[in-house]
Amino acid sequence: MYVRKNLRWEVVWQLTRRSLLIFTVYNTLICLLYGPLNVHVLDIPWQPVALLGTAVAFYIGFKSNGSYDRFWEGRQLWGSIVNTSRVWAIRSFDYVQAMPDGVGPDPRYITELHRRLLYRQIAWCNALCLHLRRQTAALWDTEVAPFLPPAEAQMAKMLSNPPTHLLRRQSVELRELYKRGLLTEFRQVAMMQTIQDLLNAQGGCERIKNTPFPRQFAYFSFVFVWVFAAILPLGLVEEFDSRQALGQYHVWLMVPFSVLVSWVFNVIEVAGHTSENPFENDIYDVPMTAICRSIEIDLRELLEETELPPKVEAVNDVMY
Fold this sequence. Notes:
By secondary structure, this protein is mainly alpha-helical. Helix content is about 70%, strand content about 0%. The chain has helices spanning about 10-35, 45-95, 105-135, 135-145, 150-155, 160-180, 185-210, 215-240, 255-275, 290-300. It is elongated.
């Protein structure tokens, strides 16, 4: 996610340089044909061009709103994962305890049990991040495996959906704790509700990931912008030529103005396009790596650990 208040011009240039170059060459060519070469058959009335521009503006605005909604829903889902992870940690500490009569395992075992439950939650967050970015095989050994027992980490890595498997392991562990008397029935149900909340958030993220933005909207938005950019100079060239206050070269002012209008429409379309898929590990996506690191720090602090990793910092104004 780009975190700087204003986009750097090099970022804007990288996004729009190709289209800006095409607009400039095309508009210059139209002006050259109309002016020095007197090919006046190119000009068309301005009114239909303005009407088309209004329609295209509404259409790309609709696409941009839909794309932003997908990004914002993804961010809300990861916000709920942060809160639910904290709930899981607090419930693990408060609910998973020895029996009131003092009969039960050694307190050191309870401490290790808390650590295992919280570490598996950290592993789940990282596994979900890799799963959504399709990076599971590449980064599993460094991002997920350190928080799991070796056998469990190796088995989960081989599955098509490791996050679901890890939540299943949490559920199995809760069932075993209930059988051993370390969880009451009420507390097991409450912790299972937390697992359900995590599954709901995972399902929401997978829905966004696996359901692309409807291509009919995305494709025709692109087409309409370029059609409008193609006919815009044809409508403007006569308008500028008819005003001779600056002499015969006044018509050349059409080029910068037409390029500017085309560029604005193209930027709106590109902005919508970059927000379509918020889990692609792009510079405009949900910063899942930073969120996972924040969850890891929170949960390990609750375990009273002191050797914690640093927070993820923005690199070149981008938070991943």
